[in-house]
Design goal:
The protein is an alpha/beta fold. Helices cover about 60% and strands about 10% of the residues. The chain contains 10 helices and 5 strands, in the order αααααβαβαβαβαβα. The protein has helices at about 1-5, 15-25, 30-45, 50-70, 75-100, 120-130, 145-155, 170-180, 200-205, 215-234; strands at about 105-110, 130-135, 155-160, 190, 210. Strands 2-1-3-4-5 form a 5-stranded parallel beta sheet, sandwiched between helices. Helix 2 (about 15-25) crosses helix 4. It is globular, with a radius of gyration of 19 Å.
Length: about 230
Amino acid sequence: MADEEEDIVLSELDDEELVQQMMDDLYDGLKEEIEEGVQILLGRGWLPYDVLTKALVEGMRIVGIDFRDGILFVPEVLLSANAMKAGMTILRPLLAETGAPKMGKVVIGTVKGDIHDIGKNLVGMMLEGAGFEVVDLGINNPVENYLEALEEHQPEILGMSALLTTTMPYMKVVIEALKERNIRDDYIVLVGGAPLNEEFADAIGADAYCRDAAVTVEMAKDFIARRHNQRAAG
């Protein structure tokens, strides 16, 4: 396989073949190849938004499906996400300049007392890959961190994660704080993490429980679309 790979010169592929190859490279977590592919497409006059959506997002969508179906596992998906991130680093400033359409903005963070972040990082990267702007607060976040970030960044979505049964209840503390300030309905609240389930999400008043990164992206898109439709109807 290594010898075969040597033979592929990205710059010699036509656009369609290159995009296909980039999807394969993303799937295999090949960071440098993704950087090169992004630069080649830009050099051929592709719009940054088209490079993002047609090559990277589509590639990550396939990664997400195979992750959901148990074909890929966390280490492999992290490699893919890392390659995606490398491509995004090149595209982000260009996207800002060209005013590319944004799906929406998400503030995401692991709750107080919890220092697990692999799942959260994965979700953040895949949301970013799907066109969302992601503000990642990191780990061990008290209520104040979430409230400050919501005020500063004005996102549509607040995402909270927890991996410990002992830190799960803190999600309710955050949601109650939003209710006290009469701002709960301003945000779509998504929660996730291994010990959670739908019953728990309902019980604490979240909008939805997200089983994994792929599901989170689909739910986020769905909620944003519904919100836009409601505003249009109103």
